[in-house]
Design goal:
The N and C termini lie far apart (about 35 Å). By secondary structure, the chain is mostly helical. The chain has one domain. The chain is about 25% helix and about 0% strand.
Length: about 45
């Protein structure tokens, strides 16, 4: 298994494998039998 992708805005110390593309996230979750967590916010 490859190293998790970092959070796009801060160092989460590798807690989760972050995606910024919905289709990639959905395909990855489906392949692993996992759910998708959606973090929504705005950049300042």
């Amino acid at each position: 298994m490859s190293a998790p992708r970092p959070h796009p805005h801060f160092d989460d110390q590798g807690t989760l494998d972050w995606h910024t593309n919905w289709k990639e996230a959905q395909a990855s979750a489906k392949a692993q039998g996992k759910l998708v967590f959606i973090e929504f916010g705005r950049e300042a």
